[in-house]
Queue: 2 jobs
Job 1
Amino acid sequence: MSKNIQAIRGMNDILPEKILYWQHLENTMRRILNAYGYQEIRTPIMEKTELFQRSIGEVTDIVEKEMYSFNDRNGDSLTLRPEGTASCVRASIENGLFNQTQRLWYMGPMFRHERPQKGRYRQFHQIGVEAYGLQEADIEAEMIFMTARLWRALGLKDLALQINSLGSAAARAAYRDTLVSYFSAHPQPLDEDSQRRLHTNPLRILDSKNPEMQPLIAAAPRLLEHLDSDSLTHFEQLQQLLTAAGISFQINPRLVRGLDYYNRTVFEWVTTALGAQGTVCAGGRYDGLAEQIGGKPMPGVGFAMGLERLVALLEEQENPNLPDPNPHAYLLMAGDKSLQTGLLLAEQLRDALPNLRLLSHCGGGSFKSQFKKADKSGAYLGLILGEEEVLQGRIAVKYLREDKPQESLLQTELAAFLAAYFKLC
Ligand code: ATP
Ligand code: MG
């Protein structure tokens, strides 16, 4: 026998037993996005490699070492998307969406060739949100309010908000020189990654997780002290709005984010409940991105959340308030004509009660074996159709989870009975 073929490392199947958590998260977020007037956009899973090189930045972890890039049969370099913002901006430029303010969201898989570990996979999923054409801090505040609403709706309590401002491009360029001088002048040697970044992307040194680098980083000059006055006002406005809404936050001067396109506001929601991979949602403002990939200048703000990490938080909750997956009823059929009567009756019930979860038995067999399956399905009621019932136009109802005697109803009464019993509409 040949060897079983297995899934690619770091790319997981999401099985039916876990899917409820995903659907609960996705449905809750979809409802909230809808309530705030955001519209869904779906872009291809692959883009030209150049799009990510130009948007995310050549000297970032993603572009340097995490992208799944390959040449297609025409020799074009394509990449499985490592994130969604670049595609959204590309699609908006290409389809003329920038003619007006846009509030967009997307959901789907992203691909990064990282070392797989808890909370870090090679295919992972994000819900991302982007708004275009808005310059003030009100939109950042709205997005943060929206995420806070999601955490409340999901019952997630231990998430902390960190914010920072990266200022204008000019302020950042000046700060960059300050940083290069600081790190170069320092006697303590930089680690290999940081040396490499010193002249290409020194801000990323601040993001280093290497413990030996921490004292040096802690003493580094802070970008917040070099902000231009407009960015400072913007940052203060955001803080006022958050405070007014009762959302607590920490200013983290070292929060620089792993992608190059951000300016002004950056933020992350972080938990300590998941070990090292604690950021569940991250985003910021990227006013220069559209121009960088060939469009007209267009302010942008967005964030993305990692669904695997949020699902992991939901799984740790004692009572995650998931929708009930069990069928309301299981239809058992045995004997002459019962199959046809039963399947048609099931269709009538589905017409009358669109929210009824009804499992019709398929594959025949004795009532005994069908009852075993009914029980295993988790259904609350068994609806039993034997030869006798077919002749009399009746159906027997057996309570599978309650100690109550079996009942016999007219088939014509069944929909009303089920609607009342399960409070269905
Ligand atoms: P990290 O610092 O954890 O590498 P990042 O800055 O690379 O995160 P973003 O590009 O901002 O992450 O992506 C937004 C969110 O997507 C992250 O906060 C995280 O929740 C999730 N995420 C990113 N990379 C992965 C991954 N490889 N596996 C699972 N989730 C991920
Ligand atoms: Mg990363």
Note: The mean pLDDT is 94.
Job 2
Amino acid sequence: MFYTLKWETDSVSFIDQRVLPLEEKYIKCSDYQQVAVAIKDMVVRGAPAIGIAAVFGVALGVVKSKKDTIQGLKEEFSHITSVMRATRPTAVNLFWAIKRIEDVFNISCLETNDVNKVKEKVLSVALAMYDEDANINKMIGVNGSELIEDGMNILTHCNAGALATVAYGTALSVMRAAKQQGKKIHVYADETRPFLQGARLTMWELMKDEIPCTLLSDNMSGYLMANNKIDIVIVGADRIAANGDSANKIGTYSVSVLANYHKVPMYFAAPLSTIDLKTPEGCDIPIEQRSLDEVRVINGKKICPEGANAVNPSFDVTPNSLITGIITERGIIYPPFNESIRSLF
Ligand code: MRU
């Protein structure tokens, strides 16, 4: 069995998602700066996983702080959280998780003058958030599995699996629950250029769990839909705006347009922590732009002429009009999302 991330006595370890599936190796981060680099460099990735990674990074910084006064610890805390917030901009789970640990820290500082008590509190809440994430994902799976019928072919994009969370995943949790209920399913996984989360990570997870699956390159799902090979699309999300517009890995929007054209139901699976009520619409979601070499280079080899220009937006936004439903730990919601999203909180 593997784990995505784990708290150790004085460090946090991550499975290195940059080298899967060829190598299964773990990376130990012994300070919060190393955790921030691990998030930025995508050693750990996926919205819920980076939220918990950031909280573990904050906890590591607090636990290892040499400050012996509450005021000193407060100043250091503020620096640590700003480093964590600057890692990746799109997945709101990161900001949600940091805000939650920040509230715990601030209340704790009001309640005691004992620096060690504050450290203990921050660590205990970070560990509780880790367990909570696994439980929430399990519920998403149970709720979403009611959409899955025996014999269904499911398309997914990117990796919304255990590797993107503490455990189970979001979209993949639905598939895991369906399999557990004895339903025969088959999953198509988009390769997901340029980081290849689908080819490297989703296929690895599904094959480990013996869920029948097939890899396709990103330009093939239209062909499959036109030939009635896809019954449902289920993907994860990085940020869902208050009106239901949903950001997910680049390419999801194209899949949504195709699904809509071919009348294939299009579902997003995400915890409530991915819903950002402060962002009214999809156009307000910040889209991370990553290094152009992620597009120009594969496995260390340039695949285009020297000096070629490229673009690399890491996410795109699917408008609510193309979304059939959103699967959450509190149930599945349907349009109008402006109303159904609010009813969840
Ligand atoms: O750039 P990544 O790999 O962090 O992007 C991940 C995704 O887009 C996932 O689909 C999303 O975070 C949902 S994970 C349960």
Note: The chain has two domains: 5-139, 147-342.
